[in-house]
Amino acid sequence: MHFSLQTLSIFLLSSQAGLALAGLCRPSTTTTAAASATTSSVPEGTPIVAVLSDGSVVNTYLNGLFLSDQGDTPATFILEPSTGRLTTTVGGTKYYLQTVIPLGPQLSFQFDTYQNIVNNQYRYFVKCDVVAGFLSCASESGSTPIYWHIESNNIFYGNENVLTDVTTAQFRFQ
Length: 174
Fold this sequence. Notes:
The protein is an alpha+beta fold. The chain is 17% helix and 40% strand. The protein has three helices and 15 strands. It is globular, with a radius of gyration of 18 Å. This is Ubiquitin 3 binding protein But2 C-terminal domain-containing protein.
């Protein structure tokens, strides 16, 4: 059995509106499985590249625990299948992408240990999905999306709104 996107869209809109549909438009585990497969299909140690607003593609590096477009250590990541959290491993230690959003306006693309994030009331985990080939990230404290840009010191930053006069960046797994 297969559905067209139009049929699926009608079902999703109708079910959200509280309407009941009969027949072929029933929720299926296929939709749920596809959503979870998106986050679990990224192998551990996958590099991320940044696609800048001018169309250029730059490699990313871990500069300490900050993501930069310059450095010595290629940045490699995985999305945790159970949480969608973006993680990296450095020297055998697992680090998680963190944010201050929505309590603060921005934070660099920065990683810390699980315990340090949990113990800091102003830091939150970042969860991501792959949407149309690019990472779509939000603060785990709420559905606040993060918009990325790059500063003159080559470090990427995330904001809760789109900034003007900055070079924006979208990230994709290689």
